[in-house]
Structures are given as C-alpha cells and as structure tokens.
Amino acid sequence: MSTTASTATAADEASTAVGRWVRVCLLHDLAVERGAAALVDGDQIALFRLPDDSVRAVQQRDPYSGANIMSRGIVGTRQGRPTVAAPMYKQVFSLETGACLDPVGYTPLDPAQANLRTFPVRVTDGVVQVGLLDGAAEPAA
Amino acid sequence: MSQSGNQPKHLVVVGGGMVAQRLVEALRARDGAGAWRISVFAEEAAKPYDRVALTSYFSARDPEELTLGDPELWEDPLVTLHRDCAITTIDRDSHQVTDRLGRTHHYDELILATGSSAAMPPIPGNDLPGVFVYRTIDDVAALRGWVEDKRAAAGKGRSTDFERPVRGAVIGGGLLGLEAAGALKALGAQATVIQFGTHLMDAQIDLGGGQALKRLINDMGIAVRTDTATAQLRPSRRSGHVGRLDFVDGGRLDVDVVVVATGVRPRDELARAAGLDIGERGGAVVDLDCRTQDPHVWAVGEVACIEGRCIGLVAPGYAMAEVVADRLLGGKATFPGADTATKLKLQGVDVASFGDAFARTEGAMELVWADPVAGVYKKLVLSDDARTLLGGVFVGDASPYASLRPMVGSELPGDPGAFLLPESTGGGAASLELPDAATVCSCNNVTAGTIRAAVTEHACTDVAGVKACTKAGTSCGSCLPLVKKLTTTELERAGVEVSGALCEHFDLSRAQLFDAVRVAELHTFSEIIGRFGAVGTLGSVSAASAEVPDGVGPGRGCDICKPVVASILASLGNGHILDGEQATLQDTNDHVMANLQKDGTYSVVPRIPGGEITPDGLLVIGQVAKDFGLYTKITGGQRIDMFGARIEQLPQIWRRLVEHGFESGHAYGKSLRTVKSCVGSTWCRYGVQDSVGMAVELELRYRGLRSPHKLKLGVSGCARECAEARGKDVGVIATDKGWNVYVGGNGGFTPRHAQLLAEDLDSRALIRTIDRFLMYYIRTADRLQRTAPWIEDVEGGLDGVREVIMNDSLGIAADLDTAMAAHVGNYEDEWRAVLEDPEKLRRFGSFVNAPATADPDLAYVPERGQIRPATEAEREAAAETGAPVLIAGATLAVRS
Ligand SMILES: Cc1cc2nc3c(=O)[nH]c(=O)nc-3n(C[C@H](O)[C@H](O)[C@H](O)COP(=O)(O)OP(=O)(O)OC[C@H]3O[C@@H](n4cnc5c(N)ncnc54)[C@H](O)[C@@H]3O)c2cc1C
Ligand code: SF4
Ligand code: FES
C-alpha cells in the first residue's frame, strides 16, 4: 500500500492552484466505498475511497439539509461515473465535479448552492493529502 | 340562488345502491356547470356500498371497507344523501315524492334505482328464526351473528347439545348460493347446497361444466344435492328455530341455519303504484334511453326492465347510469346491450362463463377440453367456421377468461384449441393482441384502448395508476390480470422502464433478484452485480474518459439497488450487516444502526419488547439520556426515543445499554420495528389472552428481520383492540379460543386496516402463520412495498396469500419455515457485535483525523426543559451578539 502512486483525479486540474497539501490520514484508514469525514483547517470534508483506490473529497455539509453528513452517503455510480447520495433526502451528487445530478424534488437551503464543493486529493506513498487553495477557498463547481 | 333562471334543476334518485352511486358520480363528474342538484333517498342506513363484494364482509367485518367510490362525493354541496329514508309514494302529476317521514319533495326528473330484493319461495316455514336471505349488509351481519351464537352454544355442550359444528343449508345452487355456501364455511359451519335444477349454476354453465364444478365444490367440503326441491322447513321442537329441511322426495336434512338464494325480484312496487308499465316478470319498463313511459321518470339498475328483461348484474346497471347521466345533460346515449359475462367469486373455485355459453347461435360449434381428474372443464363456443369466438365456459381454470371475454365477436388468431390447453403445455392466451375497442372491464365499461391511452397519454406507470385513471378493475376485479398485462405491454412498448426494474444497475425486480441471489447462492454485492447487473451500464462508460478507473466502469450500484441487495443478503443470513463489503450497501440508518435526525445526529431507541419494561429499566434509560444530554420522547410504538446522539457517542451509549441488559433497537430501516401490545389478560379485566407475553415472543422472534419495507406488529388481548393491531402489517387479536390474525394494515400517508387472515389459532399455529406470511412477503414484494399493496399484487389477493401459507398451494411452506428458523437461530445483538469488533468500531469516529472531536457546528437551545436543534435564525442571532446563548449537548467522559 505504501507504494501507491499519486492517482490522477478529475480534480487535478484545480491542483495547479493548490497552495498547500495537508496530510489527512493513511489510505489504509479509509474503507472502499465508505466515506469518512475529516477536519482540515477547520473545514469539514468528506473523503471517499473508490474501488481503484483513488480518493475523492467533497464538502461534508449537505446543501439540502445543512447537516454535516455527506461522508455517510451511499457511494455508487450513475452512467459509470462515481456518485454519492445524501443520507438525509437522497440527492445524488457527482464525486468528480460535485454537481447535483438529481435533486429528487427538493431545493437546496441556499438556491445558489446546489452543488458540492470538491477538493483536490492526492495519495502519495499511502498517505492521503487534501489540497487547499491559498487564502480563501472557492467553490470548484 | 339570486338569478332564478339559473337555479339548478332538482334530480331525485330513489334508492342508494350501486347503480345510484354510479349515476351520481357520473353526473357530478360531467355536470361542471352545476345544472343539477341531486337528492338521493336510500332505504338502507349504510352509505352506498359494494354489494358485489358483500361476502368479503365476513373477512373484513368492517362495513366501511365496502363503501363505494370517493366519500367526498357525498360532501358535494350539490348532492344530498338521505340515508335510512325510503320513498313511500310517487305522485307523477304533481312531480312529488313522499318519504317515510311523510315529507314531500318536488322533482324535475325522477330516477328509480331501487334494485331488487331477494326472492323468498313460498316454502312453508320460510319465516322461521334462522332462515336468512343474502342481499344487504344487514342480512350478512345477521347471518354472521346467528352462526356465531349457534357455534358458541354448541361449544358450551349443553346436555342435549353435544359439541358439533353448526349445520347450514343453502337453497339455490347459483352464483349467489355458492358464494353463500363459501361464506358459511368461512364462518366455520357445515354447508349443503340444494339445487332444484340438474346442475350447479345452471343459468351460466352447461351440464359438463356443472359436473366439474360439483367436484370442485365437494372438494371444498361443501355437500351438493341437485334435482331436489324443498317441501318445507320445520322448527326444532326445543328452540323453535329452524331445525330440519324436508325434501319432496322424502329426504331430510338437519340444520341450524338456512340461507335462501333462489334469485331476485325487482323492487318495482313504487313503479306499479305510480301506474308505470311493468314487465312480464316485473321491473319498470324502459326504452334504450332508460326512460319509462313518463318522460320525467327513469329507471336504472336491476329494477329496470330493459330489452324485455331485468338484469341481475352490476355492469349493465352501470351502463344505464352512464346513459342517464348523459341524457340529463342533453346527450343522446343509448344502452349498449348487456354483457352478461360472469365469474364466480369463490376462493379456490374458478368458474366463468361469457357470451353464448350454451351455443344457442345458429350453427355454433363447441370445443371442449376436460380433465375430470383435475376437475377442469373448458369450452369455447365458435361460429360455424370455427373462427369467431361466440362465448365460453371455464370451470377449474378460468385463466383464459379475462383475455378471451373481450374477444367475443372477433376472430381468434391461430388455433382456438390452444386457448383451452393448460399454459404449461404451451397453451393459454398469452399472445393475444386485443383490439382497442374490446371491452376489458365490463363493470366500468373500459376498453383496451382506454387502458393503453392511460399509459401513453396520461403517463400512468403502473396498474394502480391505471386503475385510478380509468376505473378499470375497481369493481369485481376479474379483469385485473388483463389490465395488468395491457399496462405492462404498453409501458414496455413506450420504452418506459417497467416499474419492475430496480434502477440502471439491475433490470430485475426485487422479487426476481431475491430468487436469483438465493438460487445462485451469492454472498457479495460484487458477485451479484457481476452476475445479474444490467448489461446497459457496461456499455455506457465513455471511451474518452481514460481516467475512469476500471473498477468504476461496469457500475457499482447506487442508493436504490445497494440497500435492496443489503436487505436480500441480510434476509438470506450473511452475517453482520457491517461485515466487509456489506457495510457499503447499507442505507443511512442501517449504516450507523441508529436513526438519522435533521441536524445529522442520531436517535437511539432501546428495544423494549412488547413495550414491557421494569422500573429499573426505566431508570437505566433515564440515566443514559441524562448523562449524554439527550432529548427523550415516548414513541407511538411504546418505546423511549433518545435524540441528539452524535455518531461518535453511539458506541458509548450502546455499551451502557448492553451493560444493563438492553440492546438498542431497530427503530429505523426496513425491518421489524416494534410489536405493540395492550396489557391483556394479566391485568386487564376484559383480556382473554396474554397479549404482552405473545408480543414479547413475537418481537424476540422477528427482531432484526430485514424486509422490503418497515414491518410493524401489534397484539391485543381482546376484541376491544386497545393495541390498534389492525393498523399494523400483522395484527393479532385474542379470542376465547386463541388468536385471530389480521394482515396488511398500516398507518401513515394511506392508512389501511388489516384484513382477517385466519381465526382462532393456537399460539403455535399463530406463529407458524406469521412466519410464513412474513417470509413470503420478504421474498416476493417489491422494493418499498408495504404488506397491503403487496397482498393486492399477489395472485388472488388475500385469498391467494391464504392459500399459499395456510394450504401450501405452492409447496413452499416448508422452505419458508426453514428460512424463518434460520433467521431466529442466527440472530445476534448487532450493536454488541460492533462493540466487540475494533474494525467496525473505528467507523464510528466523528473525523478520521480527529475521531473524538464533536461536529463543531451542532448547536442546541432549551425548550420545555429539554434541548432541541437551534434554528438558523437562532444561530445567526447568537453569532451577532457573540453571546454563547446556545448550549452544546453534554458530553460524558469517554470510558475505555
Ligand atoms: C352477495 C352478492 C354478490 C353479487 N355478486 C355479483 C357479481 O359478482 N357480479 C355482478 O355483476 N353482480 C353481482 N351481484 C349483483 C349486484 O350487486 C347488483 O346487480 C347491483 O347491486 C345492482 O345495483 P342497483 O343499484 O340496481 O341495486 P342495489 O344495489 O340493490 O340498490 C338498490 C337500493 O335501493 C334501495 N331501495 C329500494 N326501494 C327503495 C325505496 N322505496 N326508497 C329508498 N330506497 C330504496 C334498496 O334498499 C337498495 O339499497 C351480487 C349481489 C349480491 C347480493
Ligand atoms: S384489548 Fe382487551 S385485553 Fe387489551 S387492554 Fe383493551 S380491553 Fe384489555
Ligand atoms: S370487470 Fe369487474 S372490475 Fe373490471
């Protein structure tokens, strides 16, 4: 596990802007297709390890309920692309872009923020790191 | 009412039966302008009810369940229903009717919908106590009460009356008589049917069919005497009640109850007195527009003599109601002719006849297929070239009936003989393509085209939707198999995902997937989706996205199919729900084994089987709630719910519960929730059985059982039903002799009353019955389908379910028993198991890099002495003033 190479993810485009990589946990600490929450510089982040051992990170706050629960959603796929379903009201979000794919008839608390913020992640030598922008972070979606 | 010119005209309807109800419904649906004000005068006290389903009153008992149509119809300001208010005279000259209270009412138009009464042949002794007819709710209630009293008396074994079953006789071997005989059996009485003619149901089927039918009826334990007339009824010397039947041929039969079902007589007494034309065999004579000779007086339903006769079926009556509704609004509709197809509604006996069943058409040919051993007789009547279908008779297997009936008058495709062969030998009517104009539901006059349009134009996506949209299948139900087939075919044709398919990952329905997984003995989601996953999802991975990792490509399920598979695996006994890959399949609450609340914390509901708890137990729960700062509330299922537990606190709370002999409970998820009980015979002065003891036993037996939807049970200690058991999926109500079990109840959005499945079971039989009911449901229900709609979907409905679990008609009872025994044997305290497994326990940390840190965003305010989550406004106010008005939940030091 310690030799796992850095895995490219869709969020990597944003990684050029990454100011700082924060070590969060070991890949080994994450179970496949079961999310985990992390506290990164005061931000609550949901981490998901996929079957290929890549890791995705999105905001932990569910835009539809306001609760910090995204890590407890069911991980799956829509049309072959990885998704997570919000545990509260079951909206489906892309784990690649954070976009809400199916609002299942609900409106988000803040109508301007239906999508999840995503974070760049890299796995180096079995260590999971989340990339933070310098200064204030901006929504990726 | 200021513009007198536009005042609605007054329509008076005499009779509040099935056809009157349909007439009012049809008129109100079409008379948007409010041209008519309608007064219905009904002799019976009950709201218009479904007489066709009268026999189900024996199992349902609740007369409300028979009420027809939308109750709001009677709230309509333009409609007034006068119940228990018969009309006594009609004065056609002054356009007035008089009711039994002597009040007069003016009418613009008058409709007679007085139906029929049961005929009572002039046999001496026909007025003895214990002789009943079978027409109204009151008749049926009286019959039921009589049989129950007789049974109770026999049970007490008075000196002259040794213990024996109640003996019943039914005079009349037609549709109604057989239904009445079935009802007597259902009440636990013996039944003998006495038929004057050569064979049973001689008005509908031929001799060959009648002989097959007799065998089937005998197999049900009902005796049949044909070619026999009753000379007199004699009273029992001791009681004065009916005691004996004497036949003309000298035979006799001892009886405790007699039901007379020899036909009906139109209730034309008002029409006669008003000088209207009366048919040769009774009934108010009407034209094809349903008008009598008086242009302002109409007659509909069984009282109308149309085309020279009265018709004792509901479908032609409904057709007449539609004609009159149309005419009253200026239309030109005429009666389309009567469809006299009939199907016997007697569980276990399939009989149907339609069209020219007796081959009376010139040159008609009969094609007969009979299997006397199996008691099957099928006949098609065809035109002289053997192509056009004219009619038919089915006994013992009426499965082709629904498809063939609408084909009368059309050419049959292919070899007509194929329709008579059993489906298993490649026969059957499966491939029949109905013309749009064919009537599928004759009760409600719905054509195949209308049903197709419900799918293609009105976006109905299942049978329930089509029923609501077209009314097809809402009366006698005999057309439902065909409605279902048409709906499914049309959905498939429209490319609509037929509701059976779970989601994009599985084309199978839940029931199909259950069987597939069980038979293939698969144990993981990866195996299951690899083997049974939908092929389509494989191809949809775009080639351009080389980054999409292989493992993701084929589809990894979703929040629909994963919990379904989780539930299936749990039902088939695959260890702890959080073992390995299974953990990733669990829905929100199962995942954390507690109930998610709005702020992302959880509530914990300790199991209190049957709702019985000791004072010490109460103290434990109170102390736990206090130590963890939890809000507490008593639930509707007789439990104590503790709210506000953070994910990282859950194991600590469980540990405290386990240490004191509790386990947490499945107050969440698709599984057994609770078994509610009343205090029963141990304390209650009315109780006849130990309802608490039974509830505890049931809860401990079925706890942890995963199912298509949540499951609730209830047990009451007597008929007073304080546990509200009939609002549960399985409701048990104590009787003097044991337990009655009801199934298919629920509360919630569409409340349903549970229906009687079996009576007077002893405790062992009760548990075996519930075992099978639950397992059969778990194996065959759709995702998120509760027991009530599932029962409707099972072939034969409740009777079908009863056949499977009481009479083992599918031969799966032993298998169901084994499956339930395995569940009971393998049960473990799931929460304790988490505490004992460090790997599972690790998943309950709040943050992977700070497992004991509480979610910093949680905030609470006090209310009525407890906490509740702060609102957004309260948070903002607190942030502005900087004052910490919010309180955080108390935290107990973590114990190692
Ligand atoms: C047990 C049973 C099973 C049946 N099964 C079937 C079946 O499977 N298929 C089928 O097609 N048909 C069946 N029928 C027949 C069907 O119920 C009738 O055809 C249908 O109810 C006729 O409707 P109606 O409105 O004409 O008469 P009804 O439903 O009889 O209504 C007439 C009403 O008018 C009232 N009334 C009479 N006189 C007055 C008055 N002067 N003032 C006020 N009110 C008055 C009566 O009390 C009655 O309530 C069955 C009937 C019974 C009893
Ligand atoms: S249902 Fe009967 S036994 Fe139970 S509490 Fe009510 S009256 Fe008593
Ligand atoms: S034919 Fe009776 S409900 Fe359709």
TrEMBL record, chain A:
What are the record keywords, sorted?
A: 2Fe-2S, Iron, Iron-sulfur, Metal-binding, Nitrate assimilation, Oxidoreductase
**Which one Pfam family would you cite for this protein?**
Rieske_2
* Name of the protein: Nitrite reductase small subunit NirD
Q: Which InterPro entries match?
A: NirD, Rieske-like_NirD, Rieske_2Fe-2S, Rieske_2Fe-2S_sf
Its lineage opens with: Bacteria, Bacillati, Actinomycetota, Actinomycetes, Micrococcales
Domain Rieske, chain residue ranges per copy: 22-130
Question: Organism source for this protein?
Answer: Occultella glacieicola
PROSITE patterns hit by this protein? NIRD, RIESKE
Q: From the UniProt record, report the name of the gene that encodes this protein.
A: nirD
UniProt-listed Gene3D superfamilies: Rieske [2Fe-2S] iron-sulphur domain (2.102.10.10)
From TrEMBL, chain B:
Q: What class of enzyme is it?
A: oxidoreductase
Q: Which cofactor does it need?
A: siroheme; [2Fe-2S] cluster; [4Fe-4S] cluster; FAD
> According to the UniProt entry, where is the signal peptide?
none
**All residue ranges annotated as the Nitrite/Sulfite reductase ferredoxin-like domain in the record:** 597-659
Describe the location of the BFD-like [2Fe-2S]-binding domain by residue ranges.
440-486
The EC number(s) given in the record are: 1.8.7.1
Q: In which pathway does it act?
A: Nitrogen metabolism; nitrate reduction (assimilation)
Q: Which GO terms describe its molecular function?
A: nitrite reductase (NADH) activity
Ranges for domain Nitrite/sulphite reductase 4Fe-4S come to 669-806
Entry keyword set: 2Fe-2S, 4Fe-4S, FAD, Flavoprotein, Heme, Iron, Iron-sulfur, Metal-binding, Nitrate assimilation, Oxidoreductase, Thioether bond
Sorted alphabetically, which InterPro entries does this protein's record hold?
BFD-like_2Fe2S-bd_dom, BFD-like_2Fe2S-bd_dom_sf, FAD/NAD-bd_sf, FAD/NAD-binding_dom, FAD/NAD-linked_Rdtase_dimer_sf, NasD-like, NiRdtase/SiRdtase_haem-b_fer, Nit/Sulf_reduc_fer-like_dom_sf
User: Do you know which Pfam families this protein is assigned to?
Assistant: Fer2_BFD, NIR_SIR, NIR_SIR_ferr, Pyr_redox_2, Rubredoxin_C
- Chemical reaction(s) catalysed: hydrogen sulfide + 6 oxidized [2Fe-2S]-[ferredoxin] + 3 H2O = sulfite + 6 reduced [2Fe-2S]-[ferredoxin] + 7 H(+)
Domain annotation FAD/NAD(P)-binding: ranges: 10-308
NADH-rubredoxin oxidoreductase C-terminal domain location is 341-408
Q: Which family does the similarity line name?
A: Belongs to the nitrite and sulfite reductase 4Fe-4S domain family.
Q: What does this protein do?
A: Catalyzes the reduction of sulfite to sulfide, a step in the biosynthesis of sulfur-containing amino acids and cofactors.
What is the protein name stated in its UniProt record?
assimilatory sulfite reductase (ferredoxin)
Species assigned in the record: Occultella glacieicola
